[in-house]
Fold this sequence. Notes:
This protein is an alpha/beta fold. It folds into two domains: 5-339, ABC transporter type 1, transmembrane domain (ABC transporter transmembrane region fold); 344-432 and 553-600, P-loop containing nucleotide triphosphate hydrolases (Rossmann fold, 3-Layer(aba) Sandwich). The protein has helices at 9-20, 26-43, 45-52, 63-74, 81-126, 129-134, 137-178, 180-196, 198-227, 229-234, 238-288, 293-322, 324-339, 396-403, 426-430, 447-452, 462-474, 478-482, 501-514, 531-544, 580-585, 590-597; strands at 355-363, 373-381, 385-390, 411-416, 419-420, 433-436, 519-523, 549-553, 565-570, 573-578. β7 (519-523), α20 and β8 (549-553) form a beta-alpha-beta unit. The longest helix has 51 residues, at 238-288. The protein is elongated.
Amino acid sequence: MSKNPFRDIPHYLSVFQAYLGARMYLIFALTLIAALSEGFGILMLLPLLQGLDSGAAEQVPGIGQLFSDLLAYLGWGVGSVPVLFVITIAFIVKGGLTFGALGYNAYLRAQLLRELKGRLFDDYSRMSHWYYTQRDTGHFINVINEQITQTLNAFKSLVQLGSQLVTTGVYLALAFAVAWRFGLMALVLGVGLLLLFRWLNVYVRVLSRKTVAESGHLAKLLIQFLHAFKYLTATGQARHLRTTVTASIGRYTDYEMRRGIVESFTLAVREPVLVVILMLLVVVQLLLLNQPLAPILVSILLFYRGLNAILGIQAYWLATLSQIGSLELVRDEFAAQHQHCEPDGFQAVPPLSRGITFRHVYFRYDPALPDVISDISLEIPVRTSVALVGESGAGKSTIVDLITLMLKPNLGQVLIDGVPADEVQLASWRSQIGYVSQETVVFDDSIANNICMWEGNPQQDLGLLERIQDAARQAHVAHFIDTLPGGYQTLVGDRGVRLSGGQRQRLFIARELFRKPNLLILDEATSALDSESERYIQQSIDDLKGRITVVIIAHRLSTIRNVDYIYVFDQGHVVEHGPYQHLRDAHDSRFGKLIAMQSL
């Protein structure tokens, strides 16, 4: 970015042009025609004023004489009613064109809002897992919600700035045509005023960037507070977080206050400066240059409009710079998403028919850190059940992330039905996966929509409702739903706050069973359930045996008695593998020791 913000106008326009195309410049074309129409109406005052002062025809040279000759050619006397009619029509046309420009501006803002939010949401759905872990939730919410809205305001101000530049050019050109000395003085003084305000523009852009950064920090703190609300309130620790939040609010409001003071100063000095300069120029024209009255009056009007437009340039540019931090953040976020978009393969995989294979797989999250898993080779045949066992941090969840292709190995290969992971078309594979993670995922909506994920309207589609109820029965949550006054239309609250932990988990499981996946991953799926519910879920899992492929991560080893095969992990390595009975009874078996510790 240039140290002089005014030089960055073409760059900022190009950012919006990337989403709206060249059609955004139609606003400036409409503004130009509107300004010319108004200017024509103002210039028609020359022959009108000339007609009010007999003998003044010889005193109005240049464009004034040109308009007088045009009226004479048309047979209209100066000062006649047709002249007034032409002036009226000119300003009516100007009003219509201005409305068209403003209305089209509103239309483009709506299009820009749809483009920015829609594209950014799509980008977020495709961003790499690494990039997601490098940012906090507050950052993403702040950009797609608050900063895109502020970027829209920056677009509005930037378009108004461009319109003011067009209008200023027309007024000054006409002022030169009527009285070139007058126009030259107006141009020099206007440019001088813009140069005087230059330091304010730089200051406001710096404030805008600081405000945007603080807004993201504050959003992060507020989201963390709301997520931890129950804990912080129950333990009386909200006051500790309040100190940090209050400090952030203080910085944010300070930036806003200083920015507001600068904008207030610009607005406050606008009219006094305009009047003082106008009076000085009139005195120079009348007393020193002895100019005739008619062109002076018209020039005063043009000068007032022109200088007012120049000061308007400053006002709109300041308004643009007040939001420029948001524009830059949104621009940088799109660039970051483009750079960290999750790579997709070209080969669609059909329903899983052979299985999943790991061949000498290594993975680390950071080049400076050691491997999380090392030299892992394993097989997960289709329609078998496989358990991954080991202490926390042994690498089990990383294996699951590699299976879902959220992560890609640093070395080695992950194969889906023989297709290497980097060649797999992600949507074709992930649409086959049901995934019940350790963190329960429940949406603030009805129970029915949480199960079917808005596939349709279960109140109107009885077939869909029956599938939802069947999934709920398999997850052993149907009996609880039936006791609710709203049944399947009961709202569960933010993150399922109106449900117990076990109920949320069973609702989560019901959603995955509703999808009828080819691969079901259960990552500590029964950890939040009571013994009876766990037994029911275990029965549901056993019923799936031989029908779909199941991968289970479990610390409670009672849940994996009936799986076909077990891999035991320790510090990123597979240290044992085999059927349950074989590993349990093997001499000096690590798995046998884990079972003994749980008294199974």
